[in-house]
Amino acid sequence: MPGRTSRHRTFRRSLPFAAAALAASLLAGSAQADDPAPADATLTADLDALLADARLANAQTGIEVLDATTGQVVYARQPQALLTPASTLKTVTSAAALDLLGADYRFTTEVRTSGKRYGGTVVGDLVLRGGGDPTLLATDLDDLAARVAASGITSVTGRVLADGTRYDATPLGPGWAWDDEAYSYSPQISGLTVANDPEYLMDTVRVTIAPGAAGEAAKVTLNPAEAPMTFSGKVTTGAAGSATTADAERRRGNNELLLSGSIAAGSAPVTAWATVEDPSVYAGKVFAGALARHGVSVQRGVQAAGGAEDSQPLASHQSQTLAQLIVPMLKISNNGMAEHLTKEIGKVKGGRGDWATGVAQVQGFLKANGLGTPAGRQVDGSGLSRYDLITPAKMAGLLELAQSKPWFGAWYNALPVAGNPDRMVGGTLAARMRGTKAENNVHAKSGSMGGVDNLVGYATAPDGRRLVFAVLINDYAGTSPRPVLDAIAVRLATGPAATATATAGTAQQRAKSLTAPAAGAPEDAYTGTRWEDCEAVSHC
């Protein structure tokens, strides 16, 4: 980056904030022509006023704002505090993946034969070998099955062996909450997994509950139909106009769905998502179902592969490029995709597809680029774990660094765009900051879980200057501080002159204006009731 090398960046971030302020004061009066411009007093006053909000009274808040071109710190408060990143950690994981694996990297899933072939019969097994693809869809498995049938195979005397051994056998990340396991944002991670929707909710089944006649049991269907789920309980059909309370909850540790509640007669079906135990075998069952539809019989069902089977290639499927895959990962905050990238980095660069190896490679990427200190703590790739800790300064440093990388354009465009209603543009920020200067301006990654709400990204001021910001709010209780997060981003996008013109008066008055919902914003825009789809279950 112009004006700041990696060595300089490391030094600045390792220097205590108070010492940096003292050094700056000692140097005042001896400024040279190329010294940084003085701090924006209006910006400082406005951000100070925003951070004085009562919703932050007992929370831990860290913030750093940089001039994206020079790296100059234009505002900071507790920039070296170690805080929980939640899903903002996906910026670290995706940047490391692009740098270490390459923007053109693809995942490959294979169908292989084990045994001998006699005409249309395979005497032996078919092996579905997972290559770690986090976006493998049921339709992709159907296409592979069609290609098996097109090769002339009509019968397999053995099994479909589902091979997820590219990654280790640990399906859930360190520190993940046990009561999250049934939900779509907490999928089990395997070298072979399947999704059945365009947002790549891997290792999940869609449960649809439709009403019958009043007093009768509701109809429950699964997609994919091959999902190995059993049912207990039931959903009843209530009178027309009655409340709908239908639910389908997966019991922990098995594939039993507990049905409960009721659905009103004549109402639209309701849909729930649940994770599935043993994702590789689940993918194998979906593949076996596709084979049957294409006229290929498998006599001995589906089993997990050991990974050492002698086999020959028959057909393969390649994913999109990594530059394309990070779009849904960042836009809609897909946790499973982030974890696959972490284990894939470990497999390709460290020889082991596990979290420890992948995280070590990610940390090596940060260290090699001058962002090794303070060490903080990272245990997964998505930020789902509360063990993860990072500083606002390191997060801002990553955003500054990324601009110098050849993959920056793809990465910047993959970040959610404030106020843009297109799901794959606005992503988790689609309903936020509408009707403000931040709309279609701020590119940023959100991250939240209970008591945590964060936002890191870029804002472009009216004069064209790009600012990097990282705001991490931890340990709040009660009313959501999200209006403050959004107001900070809006203030950075608005600029001092526009702010003063639009809202004359004190910094406190300007702060009050910035934290009010914008005209035309959704009615629940600042209530905390349903910010983002993934936050309906409080992890994003």
UniProtKB/TrEMBL annotation:
Q: Which domain of life is it from?
A: Bacteria
SUPFAM superfamilies per UniProt: beta-lactamase/transpeptidase-like
The gene behind this protein is dacB_1
* Pfam families, alphabetized: Peptidase_S13
Region spans: Disordered = 501-525
Lineage here is:
Bacteria, Bacillati, Actinomycetota, Actinomycetes, Kitasatosporales
Identify the stretch annotated as signal peptide in this record: 1-33
Q: Which GO terms describe its molecular function?
A: carboxypeptidase activity
Q: Which family does it belong to?
A: Belongs to the peptidase S13 family.
| Keyword Secreted attached | no
The name this protein goes by in its record: D-alanyl-D-alanine carboxypeptidase/D-alanyl-D-alanine-endopeptidase
Whose protein is this, by species?
Kitasatospora saccharophila
